[in-house]
Amino acid sequence: MPIGGSSPAVGSAEAERATGTEIERPVRGLPGKTSRGVRAERLAPFVLVAPAVLIIVALRLWPLLLGVNFSFTGDGERNGTAVGFDNYAELLGDPLFRTALGNVGWLVVLLPVAVAIPGLLATFIYLRVPGHRVFRGVYFFPAVLSPVIVGAIFNLMLGYDGPLNTALAAIGLGPVDWLGDADIAMFTVTGVHIWATFGMALVVFLAGFSTLDTALLDAARMDGASLPRIIWHVIIPSLSRTLQFVFVTTMIGMLTSMFGLLYVMTSGGPEGSTYLPEFYVWIQQGQMNRPALASAASTVLFLIMLVVGILQVSVLRRAGSED
Amino acid sequence: MRGRHLGRWAAAVPMALLALATVYPLLFTANVAVKTRRDYILDRFSPVSSPHLENFSAAWNSVGMARYFANSVIVVTVSVVLLLLLGSMAGFALSQLRFRGSSALFLGCLAALFIPFQVIMVPLARVMADTGLIDTYPGLILAYVAQFLPFTIFLMTSHYRTIPVEIVQAARIDGNSTYGVYRRIMIPLGAPALLSVGILDALFCWNDVLIALLLMPSPEHRTLMVGVTSLRGQYSDNIPQFASGVLIAALPVLLIYLFLQRQIADGVTAGSTKG
Q1: Which of A36-45, A151-160, B22-31, B140-149 has the highest mean pLDDT?
Q2: A 294-323: CB under 8 A from B
Q3: Mean of the pLDDT values across residues A291-299?
Q4: A134 touching B, CB under 8 A?
Q5: Partners of residue A79 on adjacent β-strands
């Protein structure tokens, strides 16, 4: 860092005179400026970014390295000693972690649904369906609620004799044990997550629509193209950047912001069926006192996110360039 | 023409149903919150004719909700002020001042944006414990600032890039130093972006549960969202009181949403269009 090199000017004689240094930097050298002022000016950008850089390096980048390093050491009696890939081997052997990875697979499968719902709704709102202003406002509101609040509300909604089962009974179905059935619980929680977050993606899509070339859309309509064809041939290619952004952020959201829901709604159960890597990290760190194992799980989660992000960007880029 | 009209109505009906499904859970909870326990057990669905508002005062007074609420307000306020201050300073430097390493710094900031908290939570808890910051307000505030600073810097940098260089140059000719430009030009011209980013940061901090759960283990240091997670256990036999506790915790966010919806949407979309 160049900050360390230049110490603040202390010579008073130097400070009193406005000298030649100004000429080197005509924009900054202003009449009446001392060379101390000039030096302060030169340092100013570094002073402005320094606190932010310090905090980010110390509390985000440094812990990332520390965590990766940590994942190769042992817990408990082997605390601090290098154990190679032992933690990773233990992870692969742990049925709970394998369930967590399997659930990540389900999230990837459900991702297109989580993107298509807000995409379609945004399309209709953009086409000015009657009441589009109201819809826009209403759909967005769950997105501002904490997962903890959403989870608490849905604990009431999804109870065995709660509103959803009552509604199902009215049409002769159910009841369903939404959170107590190991085959269903993960889909229930994912559904609630989509309910709570589709408004975010909707707003992003609408911002993308505002950059859409209306002439293209009008031309397609004049030619009598049906709505599905308009979506497929006009809207999707024109919004490829927005789509890419929504795909990546929705996947990141699914991998990193379902903790609150899991914590409040299922605590990982029943039978460990609703574990996700983030919840596994929390349990190993907070409840089991296995920080090194938790670090290994964190590292795996980070790798998953990197891979998913890179894959999506490259797949979508290729899809976009074919058009 | 007529066919298209019909088509638009055909889309409006399922969308209206979806809108209903979006608000119903909250309406149901609000209705339950003003029932007596007896009413709830007899019939949980029918609308309440005479609201039983005592549930709210009981929830507020009984399980430390007031304390949790105050904790959240303190932590969120200080965090947001620091985020906006540091974020606008760095955003100004990265967008308007050319200095060695500025583009590398911006890239580093983008990279930090993609490190989720779950990935660094174990070592961060250790760093906080080693420095004595665990279970303290400054510790949690620092963690929030670190968590949301990359996002804040990113949006402030994008915003400040739209301010023409001529304005900054004119201010310099008028005798302003870099700090003067920051104070007299960047803060006022950045106000709309500061408002959107500040609201989003406030929502993120207010709604967080994982970071607070990890770094504030003592019961008296719980934030409101951590407090809500313990409500269920305390009120398993008194669902109306549970519902009113949940609503108290949601109220500030709902108010912000009602009055500042546009700013929230602006903040969310700024990240997508400028990225």
Answers
A1: B140-149
A2: 294-295, 298-299, 301-302, 305, 309
A3: 92
A4: yes
A5: A74
